[in-house]
Amino acid sequence: MAEILFGIGLLVFLSLSFTAIFKRTLVPDVLLLILLGILLGPAVLGWVKPEDFGKIGGVMSTIALVVILFESGTTLDIDLLAKMLKTTLSLAVSTFACTVLIIAATAYWGLHLEARTSFLLGLILSSISPAVVIPIAKSLKMREPAMTVLILESGLTDVLSIVMVFSIMESPAGVFQAPKMLGTVLSSLVFAGVIGMAGGLAWAAVLNTVRQFPNTSFAVFAWVFILYGIADMMGFSGAIAALAFGASMVNYHRLPLHNVKIFQQHEFGSLNSADMEFYHEVIFLLKTFFFVYLGLSIKFDNPMYLLIVLGVVVVVYLVRLGIVMKVMRGVSPGWEESYELSVMAPKGLAAAVLASVPLERGMAGGEVIRSFSYFVVLVSIVLTAGLIPLMRRPAVGQAARRLYGFEETELEAAPQPE
């Protein structure tokens, strides 16, 4: 027990030092935490195994994702959200579809998997991990509207990936029911959003009363866990419900509630700076253990896949670059945000967890899917982390300005000599 407590304390201090390193070098702390997990895990030293955590590891990972999405929702502006919805959908769907096609084609011709299995692998690895990109973007102080686009895109692709993977696995072999799958995705998003918004209004209505009781700082997390559970048990997206809950807590005053009789004379509570500071502290701890656990979960069953994975991930990021150049032109506030969006396509724990499901269900090619996916998760995060610090290099900045169309704007804005 003493060793465990010593390790937890040391881990927290290491995480603090990684945050300081990130501020000085732009090397993301999440990468250092993942590498620490790999070092301690079965892949290298073997001191800690994911199985040592039992069910707690998976539960803590879900809790971290829910809390990160809830806190991200509190930063969303509902007017900006509505304005950026079309842009977000264009970016998310384009990146998602291209990633599926690239990985599926590689799996079919490179790994010699069946067409259905190849498509399944593409879906597993098509999401952008909100638990990875949101902390990085917040640390980089990404400006709006790029921040809103990234938060919504990562949440949306996560839902698309999870829903479509299980739809494919549960459908009979050789049967592809696109209309049914589309209906499932849309209902999951819409109804999850309704649950989250309704939960946010309900919580705002009782918040002032709740604050009269002692020790209620964690009550909001208990409520968001309940909303997540309700949405998930009903077959909808708990992640989107958590995001919508956070958004409703800071935007409810913009809704026409005065037209609803029950709300006309009701005083709603709101989140204050002390609440947000507390949430940030909780997220720091959850993020620390989440990414170390992610590193522990990564397995290297077949190193031969590494070269193929490197090629695939580079192609996906190049395609992502082209999509961002087209979709975000005239929308992004600066070349920095366009660059950051271009390199923000890492996979996370959701992909790692989904990668194990085909093998657990005895599907042909399940072992290949798991091994390949673990490499993609690691390589994509390393590539994102490696590309971010390059922003500070003058040559990269100059090239990025030209690439994203900001050089002409800056020249026009510069004062002309008389």
Automatic annotation (TrEMBL):
Main localization category: membrane
One Pfam family linked to the record: Na_H_Exchanger
One of the record's GO molecular function terms: antiporter activity
Regions that span the bilayer: 6-23, 30-47, 53-70, 91-111, 117-137, 149-169, 181-206, 218-245, 278-298, 305-325, 372-391
A cellular component annotation (GO) from this entry: plasma membrane
InterPro entries: Cation/H_exchanger_TM, Na+/solute_symporter_sf
Membrane topology reported for the UniProt record: Multi-pass membrane protein
Annotated compartments: Cell membrane
GO biological process, one term: proton transmembrane transport
Annotated ranges, domain Cation/H+ exchanger transmembrane: 15-387
UniProtKB keywords: Antiport, Cell membrane, Ion transport, Membrane, Transmembrane, Transmembrane helix, Transport
PANTHER family: NA(+)/H(+) ANTIPORTER 1 (PTHR32507), NA(+)_H(+) ANTIPORTER 2-RELATED (PTHR32507:SF0)
Name of this chain's protein: Cation:proton antiporter
